[in-house]
Amino acid sequence: MMIVVINGESVSLPAQIVSVSDLLKHYELHEKVVVVEINGEILTGTEHQITRLSDKDRIEIVHFVGGG
Amino acid sequence: MLKIGPLLFESRLLLGTGKYPSFTIQRQAVEVSKTEILTFAIRRMNIFEPSQPNFLEQLDTSRYTLLPNTAGAKTAAEAVRIAKLAKASGLCDMIKVEVIGCDKTLLPDPMETLKATEELVKEGFIVLPYTSDDVVLARKLQEAGCHAVMPGASPIGSGQGIINPVNLRFIIEQAAVPVIVDAGIGSPADAAAAMELGADGVLLNTAVSGANDPVKMAKAMRLAIEAGRLGFEAGRIAKKRYATASSPVEGMSIG
Protein backbone atom coordinates (compact mmCIF):
# COMPACT_ATOMS: atom_id res chain seq x y z
CA MET A 1 0.00 0.00 0.00
CA MET A 2 1.19 3.47 -0.88
CA ILE A 3 0.34 6.75 0.83
CA VAL A 4 0.27 9.86 -1.35
CA VAL A 5 -1.12 13.36 -1.06
CA ILE A 6 -3.75 14.22 -3.66
CA ASN A 7 -4.88 17.84 -3.84
CA GLY A 8 -3.70 18.40 -0.28
CA GLU A 9 -5.35 15.29 1.19
CA SER A 10 -3.51 12.21 2.37
CA VAL A 11 -4.79 9.11 0.57
CA SER A 12 -3.78 5.46 0.75
CA LEU A 13 -3.82 3.74 -2.62
CA PRO A 14 -4.43 0.03 -3.31
CA ALA A 15 -1.34 -1.91 -4.39
CA GLN A 16 -2.52 -2.43 -7.97
CA ILE A 17 -2.21 1.30 -8.71
CA VAL A 18 1.18 1.69 -10.31
CA SER A 19 0.97 4.46 -12.90
CA VAL A 20 -0.80 7.82 -13.20
CA SER A 21 -3.16 6.16 -15.70
CA ASP A 22 -4.10 3.56 -13.05
CA LEU A 23 -4.75 6.36 -10.58
CA LEU A 24 -7.04 8.22 -12.98
CA LYS A 25 -8.97 5.01 -13.76
CA HIS A 26 -9.31 4.30 -10.04
CA TYR A 27 -11.01 7.65 -9.50
CA GLU A 28 -12.94 7.39 -12.80
CA LEU A 29 -11.17 10.42 -14.20
CA HIS A 30 -9.56 8.75 -17.23
CA GLU A 31 -12.14 10.07 -19.69
CA LYS A 32 -12.15 13.58 -18.29
CA VAL A 33 -9.98 16.55 -19.18
CA VAL A 34 -7.60 16.67 -16.24
CA VAL A 35 -3.99 17.70 -15.81
CA VAL A 36 -1.73 15.93 -13.33
CA GLU A 37 1.28 17.37 -11.55
CA ILE A 38 3.53 15.15 -9.45
CA ASN A 39 5.98 16.74 -7.01
CA GLY A 40 5.91 19.94 -9.07
CA GLU A 41 6.38 18.19 -12.44
CA ILE A 42 3.50 18.80 -14.84
CA LEU A 43 2.61 15.82 -17.02
CA THR A 44 1.09 15.81 -20.49
CA GLY A 45 -1.58 13.21 -21.29
CA THR A 46 0.89 10.94 -23.08
CA GLU A 47 3.04 10.74 -19.96
CA HIS A 48 0.26 9.34 -17.76
CA GLN A 49 0.84 5.74 -18.84
CA ILE A 50 4.60 5.77 -18.35
CA THR A 51 4.75 7.75 -15.11
CA ARG A 52 4.99 5.57 -12.01
CA LEU A 53 3.79 6.65 -8.61
CA SER A 54 5.87 6.45 -5.44
CA ASP A 55 5.11 6.55 -1.76
CA LYS A 56 4.73 10.13 -0.42
CA ASP A 57 4.20 11.64 -3.89
CA ARG A 58 2.45 14.99 -3.85
CA ILE A 59 -0.13 14.82 -6.62
CA GLU A 60 -2.21 17.66 -7.97
CA ILE A 61 -5.14 16.90 -10.26
CA VAL A 62 -6.66 20.00 -11.83
CA HIS A 63 -9.31 20.74 -14.43
CA PHE A 64 -11.03 23.61 -16.26
CA VAL A 65 -13.85 25.31 -14.40
CA GLY A 66 -16.00 28.31 -15.24
CA GLY A 67 -14.21 31.63 -14.94
CA GLY A 68 -13.79 35.01 -16.56
CA MET B 1 -11.21 40.17 -38.28
CA LEU B 2 -9.57 40.07 -34.88
CA LYS B 3 -6.01 38.73 -35.07
CA ILE B 4 -4.36 37.52 -31.86
CA GLY B 5 -0.90 36.09 -32.54
CA PRO B 6 -1.40 33.64 -35.41
CA LEU B 7 -5.14 33.20 -34.73
CA LEU B 8 -7.98 34.91 -36.60
CA PHE B 9 -11.48 35.48 -35.25
CA GLU B 10 -14.72 36.82 -36.77
CA SER B 11 -16.18 37.67 -33.38
CA ARG B 12 -14.79 40.44 -31.22
CA LEU B 13 -16.59 39.21 -28.12
CA LEU B 14 -14.64 37.05 -25.67
CA LEU B 15 -16.94 35.40 -23.17
CA GLY B 16 -16.28 34.23 -19.63
CA THR B 17 -17.80 30.97 -18.39
CA GLY B 18 -18.32 31.72 -14.68
CA LYS B 19 -21.43 32.09 -12.57
CA TYR B 20 -24.25 31.16 -14.96
CA PRO B 21 -27.57 30.08 -13.40
CA SER B 22 -27.41 26.71 -15.26
CA PHE B 23 -25.46 24.89 -17.96
CA THR B 24 -28.52 25.02 -20.23
CA ILE B 25 -28.71 28.80 -20.03
CA GLN B 26 -24.94 29.03 -20.41
CA ARG B 27 -24.96 26.90 -23.55
CA GLN B 28 -27.67 29.05 -25.10
CA ALA B 29 -25.87 32.27 -24.12
CA VAL B 30 -22.61 31.06 -25.65
CA GLU B 31 -24.46 30.05 -28.80
CA VAL B 32 -26.26 33.37 -29.40
CA SER B 33 -23.21 35.43 -28.42
CA LYS B 34 -21.41 33.95 -31.48
CA THR B 35 -18.22 34.14 -29.45
CA GLU B 36 -15.23 32.11 -30.61
CA ILE B 37 -13.12 32.52 -27.48
CA LEU B 38 -14.17 31.23 -24.06
CA THR B 39 -12.29 31.85 -20.85
CA PHE B 40 -11.86 29.25 -18.10
CA ALA B 41 -10.16 29.00 -14.73
CA ILE B 42 -7.94 26.13 -13.55
CA ARG B 43 -8.83 24.56 -10.21
CA ARG B 44 -8.24 21.41 -8.20
CA MET B 45 -10.56 18.60 -9.16
CA ASN B 46 -12.80 17.09 -6.53
CA ILE B 47 -11.61 13.53 -7.11
CA PHE B 48 -14.15 12.08 -4.72
CA GLU B 49 -17.01 13.40 -6.85
CA PRO B 50 -15.85 12.76 -10.41
CA SER B 51 -19.39 12.80 -11.78
CA GLN B 52 -19.78 16.50 -11.00
CA PRO B 53 -20.90 18.21 -14.22
CA ASN B 54 -18.37 20.37 -15.99
CA PHE B 55 -19.16 22.94 -18.68
CA LEU B 56 -16.10 22.11 -20.75
CA GLU B 57 -17.32 18.52 -21.19
CA GLN B 58 -20.56 19.79 -22.69
CA LEU B 59 -18.76 21.95 -25.20
CA ASP B 60 -17.63 21.11 -28.72
CA THR B 61 -14.06 22.28 -28.10
CA SER B 62 -13.26 22.16 -31.83
CA ARG B 63 -15.58 25.16 -32.30
CA TYR B 64 -13.99 27.39 -29.68
CA THR B 65 -10.56 28.66 -28.73
CA LEU B 66 -10.03 28.20 -25.02
CA LEU B 67 -8.50 31.06 -23.09
CA PRO B 68 -7.66 29.77 -19.61
CA ASN B 69 -6.83 32.41 -17.03
CA THR B 70 -4.33 32.38 -14.20
CA ALA B 71 -6.90 33.64 -11.68
CA GLY B 72 -5.90 32.75 -8.16
CA ALA B 73 -2.25 33.63 -8.82
CA LYS B 74 -0.70 36.37 -6.72
CA THR B 75 2.82 36.05 -8.08
CA ALA B 76 4.37 35.63 -11.52
CA ALA B 77 5.63 32.17 -10.55
CA GLU B 78 2.11 31.02 -9.62
CA ALA B 79 0.72 32.43 -12.87
CA VAL B 80 3.38 30.64 -14.92
CA ARG B 81 2.59 27.35 -13.17
CA ILE B 82 -1.15 27.67 -13.83
CA ALA B 83 -0.45 28.54 -17.47
CA LYS B 84 1.68 25.41 -17.85
CA LEU B 85 -0.99 23.25 -16.20
CA ALA B 86 -3.55 24.61 -18.67
CA LYS B 87 -1.30 23.99 -21.66
CA ALA B 88 -0.53 20.42 -20.55
CA SER B 89 -4.20 19.62 -21.25
CA GLY B 90 -3.28 19.85 -24.93
CA LEU B 91 -6.37 22.00 -25.51
CA CYS B 92 -4.87 25.48 -25.68
CA ASP B 93 -1.81 27.66 -26.29
CA MET B 94 -3.41 30.91 -25.16
CA ILE B 95 -3.27 32.25 -21.65
CA LYS B 96 -4.90 35.19 -19.93
CA VAL B 97 -2.37 36.42 -17.38
CA GLU B 98 -4.28 37.51 -14.30
CA VAL B 99 -2.19 38.26 -11.23
CA ILE B 100 -4.27 39.96 -8.58
CA GLY B 101 -2.48 42.37 -6.29
CA CYS B 102 -5.38 43.52 -4.10
CA ASP B 103 -8.17 41.32 -2.75
CA LYS B 104 -10.65 44.12 -2.28
CA THR B 105 -10.41 45.82 -5.66
CA LEU B 106 -9.13 42.75 -7.57
CA LEU B 107 -6.80 45.10 -9.41
CA PRO B 108 -3.81 43.43 -11.03
CA ASP B 109 -0.27 43.49 -9.63
CA PRO B 110 1.57 45.38 -12.39
CA MET B 111 5.09 44.10 -11.64
CA GLU B 112 4.10 40.45 -11.34
CA THR B 113 1.86 40.71 -14.41
CA LEU B 114 4.78 42.04 -16.47
CA LYS B 115 7.14 39.36 -15.14
CA ALA B 116 4.67 36.55 -15.86
CA THR B 117 4.08 37.95 -19.35
CA GLU B 118 7.82 38.02 -20.09
CA GLU B 119 8.27 34.41 -18.95
CA LEU B 120 5.23 33.04 -20.75
CA VAL B 121 6.18 34.76 -24.02
CA LYS B 122 9.60 33.05 -23.73
CA GLU B 123 7.83 29.72 -23.14
CA GLY B 124 5.95 30.14 -26.41
CA PHE B 125 2.47 30.89 -25.12
CA ILE B 126 0.04 33.28 -26.81
CA VAL B 127 -0.12 35.76 -23.96
CA LEU B 128 -3.01 38.11 -23.14
CA PRO B 129 -2.34 39.99 -19.90
CA TYR B 130 -5.19 41.51 -17.93
CA THR B 131 -3.92 44.89 -16.80
CA SER B 132 -5.19 48.11 -15.27
CA ASP B 133 -5.70 51.08 -17.58
CA ASP B 134 -2.09 52.19 -17.03
CA VAL B 135 -0.79 53.52 -20.34
CA VAL B 136 2.92 52.95 -19.68
CA LEU B 137 2.39 49.44 -18.36
CA ALA B 138 0.38 48.57 -21.47
CA ARG B 139 3.37 49.67 -23.57
CA LYS B 140 5.81 47.64 -21.46
CA LEU B 141 3.63 44.54 -21.78
CA GLN B 142 3.81 44.97 -25.55
CA GLU B 143 7.57 45.38 -25.40
CA ALA B 144 7.63 42.11 -23.45
CA GLY B 145 6.00 40.50 -26.48
CA CYS B 146 2.40 39.97 -25.38
CA HIS B 147 -0.08 39.19 -28.16
CA ALA B 148 -2.88 41.46 -26.90
CA VAL B 149 -3.28 43.80 -23.95
CA MET B 150 -6.44 43.61 -21.88
CA PRO B 151 -7.01 46.74 -19.83
CA GLY B 152 -9.91 46.72 -17.41
CA ALA B 153 -12.76 49.18 -17.94
CA SER B 154 -13.38 49.19 -14.17
CA PRO B 155 -12.95 46.65 -11.34
CA ILE B 156 -13.79 42.99 -12.14
CA GLY B 157 -17.47 42.19 -11.82
CA SER B 158 -18.33 45.78 -10.81
CA GLY B 159 -20.35 46.62 -13.91
CA GLN B 160 -19.27 50.26 -13.64
CA GLY B 161 -18.38 50.50 -17.32
CA ILE B 162 -15.48 52.57 -18.64
CA ILE B 163 -14.33 54.87 -15.87
CA ASN B 164 -11.27 56.24 -17.65
CA PRO B 165 -11.95 56.57 -21.38
CA VAL B 166 -8.98 58.95 -21.71
CA ASN B 167 -6.45 56.31 -20.64
CA LEU B 168 -8.18 53.64 -22.65
CA ARG B 169 -7.92 55.77 -25.77
CA PHE B 170 -4.20 56.41 -25.11
CA ILE B 171 -3.64 52.66 -24.75
CA ILE B 172 -5.53 51.96 -27.98
CA GLU B 173 -3.70 54.68 -29.92
CA GLN B 174 -0.24 53.48 -28.96
CA ALA B 175 -0.98 49.76 -29.31
CA ALA B 176 0.66 47.61 -31.95
CA VAL B 177 -1.23 44.51 -30.71
CA PRO B 178 -5.00 44.13 -30.23
CA VAL B 179 -6.52 45.90 -27.23
CA ILE B 180 -9.29 43.90 -25.57
CA VAL B 181 -11.25 45.70 -22.89
CA ASP B 182 -11.58 43.19 -20.07
CA ALA B 183 -13.54 43.53 -16.84
CA GLY B 184 -16.04 46.04 -15.54
CA ILE B 185 -18.40 46.09 -18.52
CA GLY B 186 -21.96 46.31 -17.23
CA SER B 187 -24.27 47.03 -20.15
CA PRO B 188 -24.36 46.85 -23.95
CA ALA B 189 -23.77 50.63 -23.99
CA ASP B 190 -20.45 50.08 -22.16
CA ALA B 191 -19.39 47.42 -24.66
CA ALA B 192 -20.35 49.62 -27.62
CA ALA B 193 -18.48 52.56 -26.06
CA ALA B 194 -15.32 50.45 -25.72
CA MET B 195 -15.55 49.46 -29.37
CA GLU B 196 -16.25 53.05 -30.47
CA LEU B 197 -13.07 54.11 -28.68
CA GLY B 198 -11.28 51.73 -31.03
CA ALA B 199 -10.86 48.62 -28.90
CA ASP B 200 -10.32 45.45 -30.93
CA GLY B 201 -12.51 43.35 -28.67
CA VAL B 202 -14.32 43.07 -25.37
CA LEU B 203 -14.03 40.31 -22.76
CA LEU B 204 -16.92 40.06 -20.35
CA ASN B 205 -18.54 37.55 -18.05
CA THR B 206 -20.71 38.84 -15.21
CA ALA B 207 -22.51 41.34 -17.47
CA VAL B 208 -24.02 38.33 -19.26
CA SER B 209 -24.06 35.58 -16.61
CA GLY B 210 -25.51 37.90 -13.97
CA ALA B 211 -28.19 39.49 -16.18
CA ASN B 212 -31.85 38.64 -15.52
CA ASP B 213 -31.92 36.98 -18.93
CA PRO B 214 -28.34 35.93 -19.76
CA VAL B 215 -29.28 34.58 -23.21
CA LYS B 216 -30.90 37.85 -24.27
CA MET B 217 -27.99 39.83 -22.81
CA ALA B 218 -25.50 37.67 -24.73
CA LYS B 219 -27.26 38.66 -27.94
CA ALA B 220 -27.38 42.32 -26.86
CA MET B 221 -23.62 42.27 -26.22
CA ARG B 222 -22.92 40.70 -29.59
CA LEU B 223 -24.97 43.39 -31.35
CA ALA B 224 -23.47 46.19 -29.24
CA ILE B 225 -19.93 45.08 -30.03
CA GLU B 226 -20.74 44.82 -33.75
CA ALA B 227 -22.45 48.23 -33.70
CA GLY B 228 -19.59 49.85 -31.78
CA ARG B 229 -17.02 48.41 -34.15
CA LEU B 230 -18.94 49.54 -37.24
CA GLY B 231 -19.31 53.00 -35.70
CA PHE B 232 -15.58 53.17 -35.06
CA GLU B 233 -14.76 52.08 -38.59
CA ALA B 234 -17.30 54.52 -40.06
CA GLY B 235 -15.83 57.44 -38.09
CA ARG B 236 -18.15 59.52 -35.98
CA ILE B 237 -18.83 63.22 -36.60
CA ALA B 238 -17.06 65.87 -34.56
CA LYS B 239 -19.00 67.33 -31.65
CA LYS B 240 -20.14 70.94 -32.10
CA ARG B 241 -21.32 73.37 -29.49
CA TYR B 242 -24.34 74.68 -31.45
CA ALA B 243 -26.95 73.21 -33.74
CA THR B 244 -26.48 72.70 -37.46
CA ALA B 245 -29.66 72.13 -39.46
CA SER B 246 -30.00 68.80 -41.23
CA SER B 247 -32.66 70.16 -43.60
CA PRO B 248 -31.76 72.75 -46.28
CA VAL B 249 -32.09 76.39 -45.26
CA GLU B 250 -32.86 77.40 -48.90
CA GLY B 251 -36.29 77.18 -50.55
CA MET B 252 -38.56 77.26 -47.52
CA SER B 253 -42.19 78.07 -48.49
CA ILE B 254 -42.82 80.07 -45.37
CA GLY B 255 -42.95 83.89 -45.22
Strand content of chain B: 15-25%
| Spatial gap, N to C terminus of chain A | 41 Å
Instruction: Show unreliable segments of chain A.
Output: none
Percent of residues in helices of chain B comes to 25-40%
Structural class of chain B: alpha/beta
Largest sheet of chain B: 5 strands, parallel
What's the SSE blueprint?
The complex is a heterodimer of chains A (68) and B (255).
Chain A (H helix, E strand, L loop, with lengths): L1 E5 L2 E5 L6 H7 L8 E4 L2 E2 L15 E9 L2
Parallel strand pairs in A: 1-5
Antiparallel strand pairs in A: 1-2, 3-4, 3-5
Chain B lengths: L1 E3 L2 E3 L3 E3 L7 H11 L3 E8 L20 E4 L7 H12 L6 E4 L12 H13 L3 E6 L3 H9 L6 E2 L13 H10 L5 E3 L5 H9 L4 E4 L1 H4 L4 H21 L21
Helix pairs in contact in B: 1-8, 2-3, 4-5, 6-8
Offer a few descriptive terms:
heterodimer, A: 68 residues, mainly beta, 5-stranded mixed beta sheet, 1 helix, 5 strands, 10% helix, 37% strand, globular, B: 255 residues, alpha/beta, 5-stranded parallel beta sheet, 3-stranded parallel beta sheet
Give an account of the 3D structure.
The complex is a heterodimer of chains A (68) and B (255). Chain A is mainly beta. In chain A, strands 2-1-5-3-4 form a five-stranded mixed sheet, with no helix packed on it. In chain A, a hairpin with a 2-residue loop joins strand 1 and strand 2. Chain A has one helix at residues 20-26; strands at 2-6, 9-13, 35-38, 41-42, 58-66. With 255 residues, chain B is of the alpha/beta class. Helices cover 35% and strands 16% of the residues of chain B. Chain B contains eight helices and ten strands. Chain B has helices at 23-33, 76-87, 110-122, 135-143, 165-174, 188-196, 206-209, 214-234, and strands at residues 2-4, 7-9, 13-15, 37-44, 65-68, 94-97, 126-131, 150-151, 180-182, 201-204. Chain B starts with a strand and ends in a 21-residue tail after the last helix. The model of chain B has no long low-confidence stretch (mean pLDDT 96). Chain A binds chain B through residues 6-8, 27-29, 32-35, 37, 42-45, 60-68, and chain B through 16-20, 26, 39-45, 47-48, 50-51, 54-57, 66, 68-69, 71, 81, 84-86, 88-91, 156-157, 183, 203-206.
